[in-house]
Design brief:
Number of helices: 5
Radius of gyration: 17 Å
Strand order of the largest sheet: 1-2-3-4-5
Number of strands: 5
Helix content: 25-40%
Structural class: alpha+beta
Mean pLDDT: 87
Distance between the termini: 41 Å
Low-confidence stretches: none
Order of helices and strands: HHHEEEHHEE
Shape: globular
Length: about 180
């Protein structure tokens, strides 16, 4: 009943690319989210032995502007700073245990939290969130607000953001925040 393993020569697939992008941001934020640290992480991505020639020629040039866009959003955010990455959380409400992991949690100057979820593809639509078909960030916000995130005190949640790290062709730019 086991699935066949991918061939050893398989090229990086979308899942691998998403995981690798998350690792870049995780390592960068844990290292202090500096400009120098970002360049170091970007160089490590470029040198990753798992990237084949096609990924180096086509994927990297397309994703790098979006990675830089996301890093600049952190540097330019006044009074807001990354607090935690890959933050695990859990709470029990009415006998039901809810758990999740936030890609990043920021704290603003007023002590409020923002939950950030990186998407190497598109973010869920506003309609899906409104119709409660995609409630990932709402769940993570509830856990954070109630003090269920490891190492983070309970605080009001000011924002729930999906950061899409792909070109926003309609807006003519790279990256997009959906709240």
């Amino acid at each position: 009943g086991l699935s066949a393993l991918d061939p050893l020569s398989a090229a990086p697939d979308p899942r691998w690319r998403g995981t690798r992008v998350h690792k870049l941001f995780e390592d960068w934020v844990r290292g202090g989210a500096t400009r120098e640290g970002f360049e170091t992480e970007l160089a490590a991505l470029r040198d990753d032995a798992a990237l084949d020639g096609l990924a180096r020629a086509f994927w990297l040039p397309r994703i790098e502007p979006a990675l830089r866009w996301a890093a600049e959003r952190v540097w330019d955010a006044e009074g807001r700073a990354p607090l935690a990455v890959e933050a695990q959380g859990e709470i029990t409400l009415d006998g039901v245990t809810l758990h999740g992991k936030a890609d990043r949690i920021d704290r603003d100057g007023d002590g409020h939290l923002t939950i950030v979820d990186y998407k190497s593809g598109g973010a869920p639509s506003a309609k899906a969130a409104y119709e409660k078909l995609d409630n990932q960030l709402g769940l993570l916000g509830l856990i954070a607000r109630e003090g269920g995130m490891k190492g983070i005190e309970a605080a009001p949640v000011a924002g729930l953001e999906y950061w899409s790290l792909r070109p926003d062709r309609r807006a003519g730019g790279v990256g997009k925040v959906s709240t």
